[in-house]
Predict the structure.
Amino acid sequence: MKKKQYGNQTINIIIVIAILVVINLLSLNIFYRLDLTNGKIYSLSKSSKEAVENLKDNLVIKAYFTKNLPNQYADSRRYTRDLLSEYQAYSHGKLRFEFIDPKDEDKLKKEAQQNHISPVSMKVVENDKVEIREVYMGLAFLYEDKNETIPLIKNTQGLEYDITTTLKRITAQNLTKIAFFSTDNPQEMMQNPYQQNQDEFKDAKQFLSSNYQMEKTDLNAPIDSTITSMVVTSITDSLSNQQLYNLDQFVMHGGNLVIFQQAIDTDLQRQIAKPIKSNIFDLLKHYGVKLKNNLVSDAECGQVTVQERRGIFTMNTPVAYPFFPIVRETDSKNPIVNGVNNVQFIFASEIDTTSVQKGVKFTALLTSSEHSGETSGPRYDISFDKFKGKDLTSLLNGKGRILAGIYEGSFNSFFGAKQDKNFKPFVKKATIILVGDSDFIKNGAGIGIKGNVDFLQNSIDYLSGDSALIALRSRQAIYRPIKKLPPAERKFVKWLNILLPTILLIIFGLFHYKNLIRKRKYIRDLYE
């Protein structure tokens, strides 16, 4: 009998172990994560799943990570491992990853170097001592004969986007082509043989080149038919008739434009501004796309640093500058601006929606706050002295102004007569995105703002039909600043926070004391 019981127990133990093994094996490919965050930023997106599900060959990800990272990066290794595990689960065995700590092994250090992963020096405080330690925090992607890297994972926010775009880039046969055109500083561009190193849009092109093949154009020749989207920015002078024609025909053949252009040329150092005279505005006006000859000011704005003399000293003083509007919140329903927050303009002209033509749908993308104003000609006063120490919310009380919008529909050619055999007089469907700011994506100006970069990339993704990539980028954590209140309301909220808890505590104390008296009276009456 005991032998039989012992045998049954052994069988039961074996069954339990077998079940646990099967569950663990299944959990490698079948799992579920409950994500309660806004935008589901800790769950693998549809775009990421598709990127690994469509792998045609095996892909290896080598994660070069130091085991004992400084405290501020301690969670990066664990989060990266969890994220890569999800990618692996959806790859149907095509993706595998391994974590490598080069540590003191020269062979592994050399391998990391060959995969373009270099160590970074970080300050580490241990045992009351400050040490400089070299750490590895990078990913190398190996696919067929290609090699891509994420050299340094500074933080985990946006890591899924970086991994997915790297996967798309390394597995793509041919990247989508986009063109880039600007006339800013044309004399310098012609005379300086090293112009590429001084390209004012170098950073913008670099951001776009991670997912697209960038093509240069001077518009003196027809745009390649394989190019479906073009960035046009900072037009400071009129184009030649040939350039204007090629741009027009690019649109007429179904090409899409994203234009960063303001109507007023500004010089902050000399504090002067004047209208830009260019036939680009005639072309756009013909399409029903129009900018007002003004500069928008907004109480929600950036700052400029002003030098002030105080006695024998010169001090730098930050001054809120309304001509640098900041758009804090955007329309979550539009994919281009969904999740894009804290967008900053460096001088901007308002979009005139009264000229939108029949057959064209216009949608506002970025709008200034309800504390806005404008500066119009003939004298454009952009001095910052008048804003020093002023309450901008009371100074600027006009309605919001549209700073960026999208036009979608049919357009007629700017050129009435046929000029060559490929001439098209109209297009049934094209898209033009207009941003009323020439500095929006310029180095040393708007491109240094993350919201501006997101808007640029989202715009190109939208024009290229890659909405899944937009959705993935917008899953990052959203900046939610505390809403600014007028001084009177701020004072009210301040005293409410001070007095309300005290008043509630007194009321609770009185209620509790009254209830205690009532209970004592009830007990006294009961026993007397």
